[in-house]
Amino acid sequence: MPENEKQQIISKLYEKVLGPYSKSNGRKHVVVKLEDGTYQTISYPKYLMEEHLGRRLDPELETVDHIDSNHYNDEISNLRLMPREEHSSFDTRRVKLIELVCDMCGEKFQRTPRIIRIKARLGKRGYFCSRRCSGRYGRLLALKKIKKMKKQQHVESEYYKKKYLEGDLVEQGHPQATLTPEDILITVE
After folding, report:
1. Which of 73, 90, 107 is the C-terminal boundary of a domain?
2. Residue 2: inside a domain
3. Which domain holds residue 170?
4. What is the pTM of this model?
5. Residues 106 and 175 in one domain
6. Which of 21, 60, 118, 139 is the most exposed place for a label (fewest CB within 10 A)?
């Protein structure tokens, strides 16, 4: 049957269900007929979870998460119900911080790769934990009491999701769940 041809699914919760249909980004959705006769489009994973639970989800409080982050894997075993508030922080892609050592005082500090790339592009020298250390370097350089330091290196960003650091994925032995908090830092020497 062609994908765009209407298919009707038997539902416990809705009068009529059409689909699933694929959007241009590959994600699936269904069109459901509500009790008042109006039609609504909802995501296919949400529809599957509602049918599995036997109730409708509260759109303000609940959402469906793909455990393996593969949005094309709509198996019920790969879906879990999550509070919307928690899901947004749990599934957000975050940048790994880079751990550095200040070239003036020797103190350890962290920066985002973006800041380091900007400084490398501008030809900045040395890694400094504060303006004070940077200013001290500039003053000693002006007084010719210190040699110029190496230029900062270009660093690519690496990303992680909080969901791979804790929770069910670790217990299930998910390959990306092996990250530890130490993996969030990249050390530049």
Report:
1. 90
2. no
3. 92-189
4. 0.57
5. yes
6. 60
